[in-house]
Amino acid sequence: PFDFKPAPYYGPSKEQVLKDRLAHVHPSVLLYYEKPIMIVQGKMQYLFDEKGKRYLDGIAGIVTVSVGHSHPRVIEAAKKQLEKLAHTTTIYLHPNITEYCKLLASKLPKKLSHIYLVNSGTEANELATQMSRLHTGNYDMVALRNCYHGMGAAMGLTAHSTWKQPVPQGFGIKHALNPDLYQGAFREDDPNAVEKYLKHLEHLILTGTAGQVAGYIAEPIQGVGGAVVMPKGYLKNAYKIIRSHGGVCISDEVQTGFGRTGESYWGFQKDDPDLVPDIVTMAKGIGNGQPMGAVATTKEIAESMGGAIHFNTFGGNPVSCAIGQAVLEAIEEDGLQQNCRITGSYLIKELERLQKKHSIIGQVRGKGLMVGVELVKDRKTREPASAETKKVAELMKDNGVLIAKGGLYGNVIRIKPPMCFNKLDVDFLVDVLDYSLSKL
Ligand code: PMP
């Protein structure tokens, strides 16, 4: 049952907005759809265009809207703070900063007690890189191929050609083989695949660095890379290898954090609740779409920043902190982690049912509400069905469901809706996917 009526839209027409955009907005990012949509309102898991057409948001903005579009608790917190004070700067004291950092730290393993507030995932990963280098005195960073950790200086960490620019990026960064058991160098039919990926990681350190590294960064489930789940045992042993070569371990939780994966609050805990990285980076869902990010680390690493000041103008903004706090409270109050577990496993089950019907579905994977559907031309060769994926995204949009494409070849349908998604939403999304695949 859904009785929400979007407010009437009186703004400029879609055609006018498109014209102005082409004239004034730097076209570095293309519009996603051939026939672009203009979204003007949101309510929990739904979005509305200027004509009031409703879309089910299967990608949560861009994995940013964790607790739901225009969640009442988030609106209330932002309004209250805006009425009092929108911004000063972190050089003064403000209770929201300390309250928020205390609350966020309480969600993390005890040793990750020190929080830095920033503005985006890119900035969080740049800071994590700096911290690793300052703390260890080493220079080389290791990341995984097919990962995404941001643009700017963090583009050096990112290893996905779509997002690279042909200019020098982030020196001292090495990329290890991605432990992708579906498309990677070693696959699920090889019982020693995980061991081989770990051997490669160690070999990369021994041959490509001075033998000692600053840090290692990985997403427990690769987001932009197409919901590639780090295989069981991989992260734990990768951390061991990195630490034995003097490095610190960074978990990029920009997409996997805050209960989205269902069974654990953080992605790094997905197979082993005792696994603790040295640095955790966060953004996207942390602010339900508000531009904010954070880095959590240990007292020792924070202290080794020493005289190096880390300052940014907007990090720790009192409105952002109030929103961040409301998000954490909504996750608890609305039971969203549990919902991700329950609704997520229903989603995977339903997608697997669809897989039996459509041979183009090569693999369904993921955890909680972080799911990927990889489309292939042939299940044996696993040749990516990239053009078909583009078409499916377009058809789904026309039929009222928004998803994202991902993976190295753009052949993975990414489903990462707001964490309040329910079974009826899954049924609708899966029906529309079924219909769209049958139209190919
Ligand atoms: N890390 C991951 C895992 C991401 O998915 C992203 C954004 N797609 C980033 C970092 C960079 O975040 P931002 O776009 O906020 O800079």
Automatic annotation (TrEMBL):
UniProt GO MF annotations: transaminase activity
The enzyme's E.C. designation: 2.6.1.44
Cofactor dependence: pyridoxal 5'-phosphate
Transmembrane segments: none
Subcellular location: Mitochondrion
Superkingdom classification of source: Eukaryota
SUPFAM superfamilies attached to this UniProt entry: PLP-dependent transferases
Swiss-Prot/TrEMBL keywords: Aminotransferase, Mitochondrion, Pyridoxal phosphate, Transferase, Transit peptide
The keyword Nucleus appears for this protein: no
Assembly information from the UniProt record: Homotetramer.
Family to which this protein belongs: Belongs to the class-III pyridoxal-phosphate-dependent aminotransferase family.
The protein's name: alanine--glyoxylate transaminase
